[in-house]
Amino acid sequence: MLLDQDPMSFGLLRDAARERRCVFIAGLPGVGKSLIVQQLALIAAAEGRVPHLLQWDVARLPFDTPAILARHPEVNGVTDVVIRTAVGLWARDAVSRWDAAHANSPEHVLIGETPLIGGRLMELARSQEDTVEPLLAGPATLFVIAAPTAELRRTLEASRERDLAAPAHERDRASAPSHLVRAHWEEVVAIARALGLEVADGAYEADAYVAVYRRALRRRSSVVLPLATVLAINGSPHEWAMPVRELIPSEGDVARTLALAEALPRARLEDAAAHWYEV
Fold this sequence. Notes:
Number of domains: 1
Strand content: 5-15%
CATH class: Alpha Beta
Largest sheet: 6 strands, parallel
Distance between the termini: 34 Å
Shape: globular
Strand order of the largest sheet: 5-4-1-3-2-6
Helix content: 40-55%
CATH architecture: 3-Layer(aba) Sandwich
Order of helices and strands: HEHEHHHEHEHHHEEHH
Structural class: alpha/beta
């Protein structure tokens, strides 16, 4: 278990698993999102619901083909903005299709992992005039901001380093490397200062981090999940003791959304990614 069944934290996840149609775990790399997704899905199943998963690191993998990467290569481990945009376009449509497919089945719940920073699945937080906006903006959907203490953040980062060095699961290789985790934090510091917050250089500060994510999610229902302790976890958060239903782009989805992203001016995509917290 990620949470030691702390009454407040466990209760928040249990209530979300019982009552919401969609629950998205938001936050930086290295705050425990994948672990929370795993635990939330287990809680949902124990509550008699049928969990479905939508995760950034999983959804982008079908876009990582040699042909696509030749056109839109990673630079220093950063997914190209065209691919980030295409994954986001797919995700919004995928949520709409998922909701329609299970419209008469309230036992189904969609659980997502949404980094948001740099535009990674930020499309789910941005208001748009389409058929899925009422679901995403309404009370049936909750964004949970994973907010570890500074001490726990250091523990999670150390665990990430171990997972990257010796992955327990193939998908662990898709986790953001340590230099990217640091770069993301520096980006949050810059945004927080632009918003008028005082943030010290260097170390992670939960209050500044939460303030930036609260701003990014101001058009969505959101709640902060404080995290202070972690129990020992065997294996990978991508390993499941039960069948898992996942939303994953098909080849057709990849071709369609990539074409849409490639048709947009690159400068526009880069500006949207840089200002991901402005919705």
